[in-house]
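Researcher: Structure prediction, please.
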Amino acid sequence: MMLEQGIKERLEKAEYKLTQQRKAVLEVMQNKRGEHLTAEEVLYEARQKVPHLGIATVYRTLERLAAIEVLYKTIFDEGKYRYELSDQAEHQHLHILCIACSRIFEVEEGLLDSLEKHLEKDGFEIVNHQLKIYAYCPECSRK
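Model: Predicted structure follows.
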């Protein structure tokens, strides 16, 4: 597995050793870039490489990778955390959740920039944002 330089640096800085099980989890996340995976989904994929991998190991690995900012951790409506590979941007992107098919779409543009600038003028110091928009995706709205 080829680690991206930024990921490699964050792992080294955190002195986080990559065991075979941890590598399998990280490889799934790299291969599924842009997807929002639950621990169970990561487990299913990672078991293709490490058949005896346990869910507790997956949870611990995902939590640790989120803590050192290799992953983003987000909770959606079903009450389960979902993880995605961090792009190390200053702010997270927006998520649009289709209420019919449950797919998650990302909006990368800085659409909240004007709102943030307005809030900063009012004295707020914006650290991060997380916004979820609930809608029908184009495919579901045609049905």
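Model: The chain has a mean pLDDT of 85.
Researcher: Thanks, that helps.
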